[in-house]
Amino acid sequence: MWNIGKRSIRMKIMARCLVAAIILSTSIFWKGSLHSGPLSSTPLRDTRAQLSHHLYPLLEEHRPQCSPPALHGNAGLHRFSPIISAPQKNYLVDPEGFVEPMQVAHDGFVQAIRNTRIERAYIRGTKGIVSSAGGKYLPTFIIFLRLLRRTGARLPVELFVKDWIEYEPYICEVVLPSLNAKCIVLSEVFTGPNEGKHDLEHFQLKAFSILFSSFQDVIWMDADCFFLYDPTDLLTSKPFTSTGLVTWPDFWSYTVSPTYYNISRQAIIATTTRQSTEAGMFLISKKTHYMTILLSVYYNYHASYYYRMISQGAPGEGDKDTFILAASALGEDFYTVSEKVVDLGHPAPDGGVLGAAMLHADPIEDYELTRQGRWRVRDESVAKAPRGYWVHAHSPKFNAGEDLFSRKTQNEDGQPGRAYTSKEDTLKRLGFDAERVIWEETKTVTCTLEHAFDSWKTKVGLCESVTKHWDAVFESPSTQLYTFTDA
């Protein structure tokens, strides 16, 4: 019965794709061809199937034989300081009751991936961008994918959707190919015995998407993140070429339970060593860090055990630190950008910023400074800040069908306004009027694809609302906040 249903879904998808292709020429969506040929998954079909076939039993065989950890209280939020250590307390209930079974399971999985031949399902020598989005996150992804193309980046993109329910034929078969991107249905490439499906959700999708992507060198990009510059050179420059894994920082200190370090047989690191991870973007080589990816997959597959242990109730619980911790547990190299992340948003009453987005630094410039012993994270006077390189636009996410129009996109009088107005030095690090470009692409996507996304089917007036905001804010001669020539 399941196979019949599956064939029926696929036939409907093919029919819808054909109709969609006839309805709208993709040339109106993007001027000029960015398509560099099909990203055929045929050569990968067998290796992906073998990887899935071997991986699933290992994940299940080494499932911890105990209940997931419970919390009493939580670790809270502690701003990162390279000088003053944050508390490293254990907020897990009765760790003695689960340390041994989790340690046995962790040891067993690490030994298994070291000693078992596990297929490497990627095409050697390739580079590309991987992301995951579905439902309400898909419009934002398309907007930010177009922003990526505006930088001149021609790297191919693979978008993983969770299952066929999240697969949107017109977007996957018409829109994405025009942007040198393609959809991959994760539930088709990662299956259990007899093609059984796994209920992977949200944060769990990231590690599995990277593992099953076709690229050797991967830039991960969350759906609500975008680059200010073409990121292609990041994959051929230090620190990536010297380490194989590059991450950016969050605002916060680690809240990892000391129990985790015991289970994974690591020494506890001081919280002054590095910030926690902001995993909206990171770089990873599957050639050098395949074991790291597999161990991160293990942590994310058993999320009910490891997410809580790593975050201990702090906001942002999820996959964010699983890659760095996996690399550390396996003794593999990595580079964590030291330059602090900064808020973009409106001025706050306390003199800070009401955050709407996060600006992250150029990792190449940061690496050059730290190799000279100039650590701005400890003393900002030692050097000029690296240029801003990418933005995590977390609130708003620039989806006209969601909460795009709120006080964060209004001025002090409650009228349409910019989301990013503070602080001046941060805005100048953008290098150009990035918010204007975001709104321009938001308007283009909304008005071109207003009825294309499944999550917009019941929405009305989206193009009209975005256009009204654009006209009020950006068609005025006073919309240029600052000059960006001295970035």
TrEMBL record:
UniProt cross-references to Pfam families, sorted A to Z: Mannosyl_trans3 (PF11051)
GO cellular component, one term: Golgi membrane
Pathway the protein takes part in: Protein modification; protein glycosylation
SUPFAM superfamilies: Nucleotide-diphospho-sugar transferases (SSF53448)
Keywords noted in UniProt: Golgi apparatus, Membrane, Signal-anchor, Transferase, Transmembrane, Transmembrane helix
GO BP field: mannan biosynthetic process
Location within or outside the cell: Golgi apparatus membrane
Entry annotated with the keyword Protease: no
Top-level lineage group: Eukaryota
Keyword Transferase: yes
One function term, GO molecular function aspect: alpha-1,2-mannosyltransferase activity
Membrane topology: Single-pass type II membrane protein
Xref: InterPro entries: Alpha_mannosyltransferase (IPR022751), Nucleotide-diphossugar_trans (IPR029044)
Family: Belongs to the MNN1/MNT family.
Protein name per Swiss-Prot or TrEMBL: Mannosyltransferase putative-domain-containing protein
Species annotation: Aspergillus nomiae NRRL (strain ATCC 15546 / NRRL 13137 / CBS 260.88 / M93)
